[in-house]
Amino acid sequence: MHLTKRQQKKLVSAVLALIVIILGNYFLEQPQITTVTKEPVTPGFYRVVKASDGDTIVVDMNSTEERVRLIGVDTPEKDHPSKPVQCFALAASNYTKNLIGNHPVRLEADPTNSNRDRYNRLLRYVYLPDGRLVNAEIIKHGYGFAYIGFPFEKKDEFKKYQAEAKQNNRGLWGSCDVFTNKYDSPESPAAD
C-alpha cells in the first residue's frame, strides 16, 4: 500500500491528535496530590505547641520547640515554684490559650529589647494571622499588665491600654485586689 504525501500528512495529523487526546485524558484523570502538614503554610508563621501561662508560649520553629516570652506584658503567676497561684492567673492563661487557639503566629523582635531573657526564652511580639497583637490584647482586656520595666517600642501604647482596662474594671482590674498581688505599681511587676 502506497500513500500519497497528502494522505501521509493526514495520517500523521490523526495520530498526533490521538496521542494528544490520550495524554490529555491521562493527566486529567490523575488524582490531585495534597500534602498534609502540621507546619503553617505561610512563611514566617509558627505553630503554637502550648501556652505555658498568660505571657509565655511554646512554638514549633522548624521542628525545634522554642519558649517565647511576650514582650511588654506580665500576667499573674500560676506555676511559680515559690509563689501561690495569683488572682486571675488561671483566667489569664486560659485567655491566651483561647485567643491563640489553633492559629499559627508570627513572631517579631523589638529592636530596642534583647533577643532572649535570663531564662533563655525568645522575647517577641506575637501576632495572629488577622494582624492582632496578642501582647496588646492581653493588656486591653485586663488579663495582664503593661510590663514596662524594660525598654520596648510599644511601651506608651501598652501603658495606654492598661490605663483603659483599669479605668473600665476589665479582667483582673475588676476582679482582684491588685495591691495584695503586688501589682499596685505596674511600673515594676515581677519578670517571671
Description:
The chain has 192 residues and is an alpha+beta fold. The protein has one domain (45-181): Beta Barrel (OB fold (Dihydrolipoamide Acetyltransferase, E2P)). It has helices at 5-29, 89-100, 134-140, 155-167, 172-175, and strands at 45-53, 56-61, 64-70, 73-74, 105-108, 122-127, 145-146.
Tally of domains: 1
What's the order of the H and E elements? HEEEEHEEHEHH
Termini, distance in Å? 93 Å
Strand residue content:
15-25%
Number of helices: 5
Main traits of this protein?
OB fold (Dihydrolipoamide Acetyltransferase, E2P); 192 residues; alpha+beta; 5-stranded mixed beta barrel; elongated
Task: Write a concise synopsis of the structure shown.
The chain has 192 residues and is an alpha+beta fold. It has five helices and seven strands; from the N terminus they run H-E-E-E-E-H-E-E-H-E-H-H. It has helices at residues 5-29, 89-100, 134-140, 155-167, 172-175, and strands spanning 45-53, 56-61, 64-70, 73-74, 105-108, 122-127, 145-146.
